[in-house]
Design brief:
The protein has helices at about 55-60, 95-110, and strands spanning about 5-15, 25-30, 40, 50, 65, 70-75, 80-85, 90-95. It is α+β, with helices and mostly antiparallel strands and about 120 residues long. It has one domain: Sporulation-specific cell division protein SsgB (Transcriptional Co-activator pc4, Chain A), CATH 2.30.31.20. An eight-stranded antiparallel β-sheet has the order 4-3-2-1-8-7-6-5. The mean pLDDT is about 85.
Length: about 120
């Protein structure tokens, strides 16, 4: 089994004055040996959240949430992740197809190898 890491661009939803088209880099990561049920998303700086892979999958179809993470579809091509921490709330918007591609890769990484 291998680690799946995917780099993506996301929009941080905020009320601060910022150019609308400015995207930030994020890292989606899945390590089946460390925790086969969880995925991680890393935002710029040291912000990283770990949550269940099934939550991400459910949240692409309908609003879902557990603990400090909520995920929901936003229109046909976007998904929103709401991430709560002691410092506040981060709302991140990503393309759904990016998240789906990442999820597909995580399931491939865990598929048994036939001999």
């Amino acid at each position: 089994m291998s680690v799946v890491e995917q780099y993506a661009r996301a929009h941080i939803v905020t009320d601060a004055v910022a150019p609308e088209d400015e995207a930030v880099p994020v890292v989606l990561r899945y390590d089946p040996e460390a925790d086969p049920r969880s995925v991680r998303i890393g935002l710029p700086g040291t912000h990283e959240w770990t949550f269940s892979r099934s939550l991400l999958e459910q949240g692409l179809r309908a609003p879902a949430g557990a603990g400090d993470v909520r995920v929901w579809p936003c229109g046909r091509v976007q998904a929103v992740l709401e991430l709560h921490s002691a410092q506040g709330v981060s709302v991140v918007q990503l393309e759904s197809r990016t998240l789906l591609r990442f999820l597909r890769r995580t399931y491939t990484a865990t598929a048994p190898v036939s001999r």
